[in-house]
Amino acid sequence: MSSFNIKRWIIKPFVFFTILFILKAFLAWGVIFDDVLPWKSLLTEIPFAWALFCIIERFASKRKLGYYMTVNLLVTAIFFAAIMYFKYYGVIVTYHAAEQVNQVTAVSNSVFSLMDPYYLLIFTDIIVLGGYFFFNKKGRVYKKENINHRNEKIKYSVLFAVSLGLCLFNILPNKASMNEIKKAQEMGILNYEAYTIFAKEEPELVQSSDITQDAINNVKGINTAVSSPLHGTAKGKNLIIIQLESFQNFLMGLELDGQEITPNLNKVMKDSLYFPNFYQMVGQGNTSDAEFVVNTSAYIPPRGAATMSYVNKVLPSLPRLLKENGYQTATFHTNVVEFWNRGELYDSLGFDHYYDRKFFGEDDVFFFGASDDTLYSKTADKLKDMSNEAQPFYAQIISMSAHHPFTIPEDKYRMKLPERYEGTFVGDYIRSQNYADDAFGHFVEELKANGVWDNSVIMIYGDHMGLPIYSLDHDDKQLMTEIYGHEYTYADMLNIPLVIHAGDSTAPQTLEQVGGEVDIMPTAAGLLGISLENNLVFGQDLLSQTYNLLPERYYLPSGSFISSSGLLIPGNSFEDNTQYPIYNGKVPAATEDEYNRALRLLQLSHSYITQLPDKPIKP
């Protein structure tokens, strides 16, 4: 074939855009699936593109190039969104993310901070072709060739049928896969996106009459006859729950070249109960999901954020439980209450008051609201006022300054990073957490000075991870290996601390049992001596149990769980799972029985929340 004929063949829109499509698929697969030579993408992605191209060739007689450019732009946008969403969340983006578009837009700086410049190569052809067609009038006209249109239509109709068949061949055998990332890899990214649109599979609901505390405890595999030796030892005290932004457990006690990263939290930890094997249980709602899980002792929804899916319900909650026992309740957050629909969340949870940006003001703002210094200073004054009331209080405090991408203002630097950490994502994270700890330390001093500290149970935990594995480059991963002494794993990534300070009510102790955010409500109720008899909880009092089973969603594939046996991530099913240890040196041994029970717990939780009474419609 002559070079002229090759050129003439390549510039045909069908062939030309197929080549572009292959290059874009290679880029997306290389980032998301860490596949340097993703030849499998040819079998999974090309049939989808050809099906679209065949429709253009079959039905478009005019402006054919325009249709090709439109499809090209759409596919490029999907691939780019998939790349960036994976780098931030570690999951494959679906159309469900459009439901949280305002929230995702709000963290766009965080998302794009993870972008490598070469990702933008995916838009190169659009810019070049767009400029060519804009400045070249002749280029806008597609030159028709002398062809037999009837034969061409038959050819493209047959190719469309074959392409559609291949798409279905890639989709149908992989529908049952539990692991969404593997599912997308087996189906192809575009096939997976189409599948999620048309396969609107709703979880089967369990009848509410079958969802009892005994049934939940039986599935969890815990012995409820055992009571905590500390039950009721903090009866009548205030409850202060402090949620630390992006705070992971490895920071506790960490020193870099002799510098303590969190000296103030370390000091509190040494005088408290400390749970090093504690784990996040959030989803797409991140911080707001942590607020939901902690205050309801239920799991996040199958899709989306709890603040979008569950806030039309009257939620049995920690604020409601404590109000029934004579407490006043309030929650503190420096962002606007509309962010992640928190206003509706707080109403559904039954908080008496919330304090947001209107209360904390616009001074010393970075990221989404006033600094942690302002948060803690103004909150300490309000807690002092609340403590002067006749009734005890429950206050939840949401810190925010150590937020992704962790580039805090220089006037907030409280430490000098070792040279090898400067300019790295891990270094920025550590420096921001050092500032957050400094602000926390001032808060502790204020609470001690105004008398609130000694009369309160203080529970401190991280809301979610700050350093996702899939967001780290080579240098960052090396730094994490230096910190941990081993390769950074998913078990490390999800590990957050829990510290409980209750003054003379508890002796300082490190407790090794596994726990998660779902356990905070029952543990708090136990210390305060408040009965959960009229509440359903999916967590457990960590001071009365040694075994735990924690289903995970969103940041790990469906079917993943953490238990005293380890962390398990399924493949297409349980049989091809991957396991990670959660105790140093202990070989993980999670079982299929635990896997099935974890899935059952998620089904029970969703069924329970979904069938709760709706909130009254406000006039």
From TrEMBL:
<feature type="transmembrane region" description="Helical">
    <location>
        <begin position="38"/>
        <end position="56"/>
    </location>
</feature>
<dbReference type="InterPro" id="IPR017850">
    <property type="entry name" value="Alkaline_phosphatase_core_sf"/>
</dbReference>
<feature type="transmembrane region" description="Helical">
    <location>
        <begin position="65"/>
        <end position="86"/>
    </location>
</feature>
<keyword id="KW-1133">Transmembrane helix</keyword>
<dbReference type="Pfam" id="PF00884">
    <property type="entry name" value="Sulfatase"/>
</dbReference>
<feature type="transmembrane region" description="Helical">
    <location>
        <begin position="9"/>
        <end position="32"/>
    </location>
</feature>
<feature type="transmembrane region" description="Helical">
    <location>
        <begin position="156"/>
        <end position="173"/>
    </location>
</feature>
<comment type="similarity">
    <text>Belongs to the LTA synthase family.</text>
</comment>
<keyword id="KW-0472">Membrane</keyword>
<keyword id="KW-0812">Transmembrane</keyword>
<protein>
    <submittedName>
        <fullName>Lipoteichoic acid synthase 1</fullName>
    </submittedName>
</protein>
<dbReference type="InterPro" id="IPR050448">
    <property type="entry name" value="OpgB/LTA_synthase_biosynth"/>
</dbReference>
<dbReference type="InterPro" id="IPR012160">
    <property type="entry name" value="LtaS-like"/>
</dbReference>
<comment type="pathway">
    <text>Cell wall biogenesis; lipoteichoic acid biosynthesis.</text>
</comment>
<dbReference type="InterPro" id="IPR000917">
    <property type="entry name" value="Sulfatase_N"/>
</dbReference>
<keyword id="KW-1003">Cell membrane</keyword>
<feature type="domain" description="Sulfatase N-terminal">
    <location>
        <begin position="237"/>
        <end position="530"/>
    </location>
</feature>
<feature type="transmembrane region" description="Helical">
    <location>
        <begin position="118"/>
        <end position="135"/>
    </location>
</feature>
